[in-house]
Every structure is written in C-alpha cells, then in structure tokens.
Amino acid sequence: MEAIKNALDFSDSPKIDQMVALAVFGLLLAFPLFPHSAFAMATMIQFLMFSLYGMGWNTIGGYGGQVDLGKAQYVGIGAYTTTVCLLRWDIPFWVSMPIGACLAIGWSFIIGYPLFKLKGHYFAIATIATSLVLKDLFEIWKFVGAARGLGILPFKYQTPDFLRLIFKEDIYYYYVIFAFFVIGLLYMNWFRKSRLGFQLRSIKDNEEVARSLGINVHWAKIKTYAIATAFVSVVGSFHAVYVKNIEPEDTMSLDISILIALMAMLGGAGSLWGPIIGAGVLIPLKSYLKEWLGAAAGLLGIDLIIYGLIIMIISAFEPRGLWGIVAKIRRRKHI
Amino acid sequence: MDILFGSIASGVLLGMVLSLVALGLTIIFGLMDIVNFAHGEFLMIGMYTGLLTAQATGIDPLFTLPLAAAIGFLLGILCYGGFIKFLLRGPMIAQLLGTFGLMLVLRNLALLFFGSEDRALHHGLLVGKSFDIGMGIIISATKLAVAVLAVLSFCGVWLLMNRTQLGKALTATALNRQGARYMGIPTERMNALAWGIGSATVTVAGALIVNFWSVNPYVGLVFTMIAFTVVALGGFGSVPGAFFAGLVVGFIMEIPGFWDFFAITFDIGWMADVPMTSFKYTWIYVAYFVIMMISPRGLFGWKQ
What we know:
The complex is a heterodimer. Chain A has helices at residues 2-7, 15-30, 38-63, 72-89, 93-115, 120-140, 170-193, 195-205, 207-212, 217-243, 248-252, 254-267, 274-296, 302-317, 321-333, and strands at residues 150-151, 245-246.
C-alpha cells in the first residue's frame, strides 16, 4: 500500500509541473477522439513506446549514470518471444509478455554480471558488442526465421482479439500502450523515491563513497539493469503484436539502442519527465522529417542528416537536455 | 592445408591494414579520452575518396593516398574545431551520443551524394594479379601492396610520434595535460592535431581498403567496431599495441577460414554445417567482450 501511495504522490514537483502533466495526460487520453490521420496515430503510438523505452533506460542510464547502448537486444528478446509463442503454440500476449520479460531479465543477469565490472566508455562499447552478437545469432537462427524474421498474419485471428492483442484499428493499440505508459510512469515515480533509486544516485555521484556507505554497488547496478530490461522487453513484446512483422535488423540494430538512449538524454537523463519530453520532441520530428523530406522530396537520408545535426547540437551545447534548459530558466527566475 | 595457409596469409595481410584503421582511434583516445563513433565513417570517406579519384582521373587507386590523407586531415581538424571541442566539456554520455550524431550525418551525407549501391574498383595496375608462393598460398598483389603501404604509413606515424618534437608534445599532452600546459605546449592545438592525424591515418586506410573491399554508405559501423576491438586489445592510447592487436584481429576475422580447415581436414560433419561466414564479425564483438573481461584497461595497457 505504501508503495502505491508513493507512486501516486507527485507532490514534490512544482505546482506548474503537475498542472502541465495533468493537461498532457488529458490530451493523450482524448487524442483518438479528435479527427486524426493514420500517420498521426502511428506516430503517437511510437511516441508512447519510445517514452517507455526511455523510462527504462533512464533507470540505469539516467539515475545510475551507466551509459547502456545495448538495449535493442532486449527489444529483440521480448518481440521474438511473443511472436514465436503466438505462431508456434498460440500462446496469448498476456502470457508470452511475462515469459519474454523473464527471459530478457535472465539474459540481463548473465551478461550484466561481467558487464558491470567495466566503467565508462568501456562499458558502453561492451553493451553494443553484446547486442550485436545477439543480433548476429538471430540472423542465422532458423527457428526464429533467420534474417527474414517472422510475420503475424492478422487475418488468421478474429479481431478484435484482446487476448492475443491482434486488432485491425490502431485505436485499441493506442489505449493498450497508453495503459502501459501510465503504469510505467507511476512505477518510475515510485522508483526515484525508492531505496534503490537513492542508492543509484549516490553511485552516479561517487562510486567510492557509495561503497563506503555500505551499498553493494555491483548488485545495485545489476538489479537496476534488470528493471530497465523488463521495461524494454515488455514494450518489445508490444512492438511485435503492433508491427506484426519483426526481423533482426529493425528490432535489434544499434540504431534502436542509440535512439532509446537519445530519448532520455535529449529530454534530460535522470529526471522523471525527461524521457517523455525527449520522445515527445524526437519521435514526431523523426517521422515527419522522414515523411516530408525523405519520402516526398525524394532526398535520400536528408531526414537523418537533420536528425544527426540536432543530436550533435544538443550534446555539444546542452548536454543535460531540454529539462536542463527548463531547470536553468527556473533557477534564474526563482520559480 | 591450402585453406589453413591461405587463411593465415590473408589474416596477416588484413591485420596490417586493420592496425592502420585503429591507429587514429587510439591516438585520439589516448589524448582526450573520447570514443569516436564516426571513426568508421571517416574510413568510408577515405574509401570514396580513393574510389572516386581513381575513377575520375584514371590513375591507380594506390596513388590516391596523399589526397585521402589531405582530406582526412582537414576533416579531422574541422570536426575538432567545429564540434568536438564543445563536446569535451560535457559529460561522457553527451560525448558518446554526439559522435554518434556525427556518424549519422556523415553516413547520410554519403547516402545523399553517392547513393546506396555497392561500388567497387575494377581497374588498376594490380587488380586481378596474384602470385603463388607455394604450399597453396595465393596472395593477391593488391592485398600485398596494400599491406605494405599500410605498414609504411603506420611506421611513418610511429616515427612522427616518437622521433619528432611534435610527437613528443603529443605524447606529453596525453600523459599529463596539466603538466604539458605548464611546459608551454599548446594542448588545445595538440588536440586538433591529434584529430587531424587520426583522421588522416584512417582515410588513408580507407583508400587502401577500397582496393579489395566494395564500399557503400553503411560500411562504417563494422569498421568502427573492429577499430574498438583493436584498440581494446592493444591498450587504449598505445601505438605499438595497436599494431600487434591489428594482426590478432586480422586472424580473428579469418576464423571462418580456420573453421573450414578443421571441418574438412578432420571431416567433422557438424562443423561443416555451421554457417560460419555469417559469424565473420561476431567473433570481433566476442573478442572485445572477452578482452575487456580479462583486462578492463586493454591487454597491453598503456596509461593508468
């Protein structure tokens, strides 16, 4: 009970934040009622998914300060578990999602134990390496469809199928991922005030001091890594039933890992609202740039050039992200 | 036996080029503790420079190296002055993602200008020529020339780093930035110079590699990972370490060849069934992981 009360308690953030958050919540809840294009809907679902990925990354990368660039492997584990369970044994989503999360967490413990002996750049590159190894394995593993991947055929199921999460209309997916989003946000609100949350922040500030205070640094990192993994794997499972066609290249590539880290960093790593702000800015920007410049104007790759330039500018001039800018303005005005 | 000796020979030759690929990364890393994700993209630019100059002017691709070096040097200085300088003030995560942004920009600029198709060299003095040195080893003349030129470039940079005043200043900056500044070494200029030299070596390596490797805008990532592995193995910042580590990684890349040798020689059925060539690059990632587990500062660690 105490935990639920803590999760619902946002009273430590300023009044204006609470108001804005409530307004955004209302808008997100009502979004499908407004007239919208299918493209806008897809973008919104992407935004919610990447907010969740970003929240997961934020636990280890933001609060813990461990730059993890290998999250895509857990997207892959979640997505593949759900798809394989559905196609081979007709196991519904609500069962296969926890299975996927357990597999992902198990794998995260296996590689997390050696990984967290490393620090800084060495850790970041090692996470990339593990992710790419897993991707290479999936690309030749015939059981999961090798490089061509797996596809769920929606016409084989009677839609709307709430057990397997197979729908024709995106609005159902929207509300499912929105529910996940709310749960994820409440969890993060609890997490930042939890014992582990405080331990992580002290590890980020100074590992030696944290150790001398009796914190088991290695174990705290591994635990948090598992939490981050669970977030990513659950959204990966959702990705599988939503996109219905998964292949190693678009679930497990390095670009996905970087994108996940970028959400949190652009918004402000180590803050509650950071990943949501980051995803809210970056995902619409990315998909509309691609739609307007890449596809319409026929200029190949120009959307990614602009996108890369934005990353460069943000990381060079405002490394604490958009939330850092807000905090700076506040400090100046003493609001 | 042919496969075994052939694999060894090609592993050695490839390794010499890979040392040159990683040299730039290790110099930059040694000097300012920044990991450059765009390293492979610099290589890609070198490859396109070699390819396009050779195709436009009709001269042999092996003679395009000075141009590639000049372009790489300018690109490195430009990147440092216009971008990396600001990045260095921020936290580590900003550095990682910032160079990733640079990688995205360079890769997609290449995509915009050159298109996504694979391009390869089909002409040149040495293309297609090879010689048989017995025991079934057939060495293509291009690969040999490329390896020799790579070693020469490597030695050039080594001499620059160890035998000139400039190189000593660079090393001093890497070892103790504060101390170097007190001694009157312009450390800021040294950083820019390190980026210039680092990029020049990798574009030269690119212009060499294009002689036997086709180029497309996405070729960079795998070379970035190779370079990371070589640098990890050789010790972050160590120049001689990079050379030996390059040779080792060359052998790692030839693992499919050794695998085939064992499968055929000892007639092991299950070994022949494993599609080892799909794992060509996987071993590099595994090697990085294992090396870091054994020795988190690199095998021939240099700076503590």
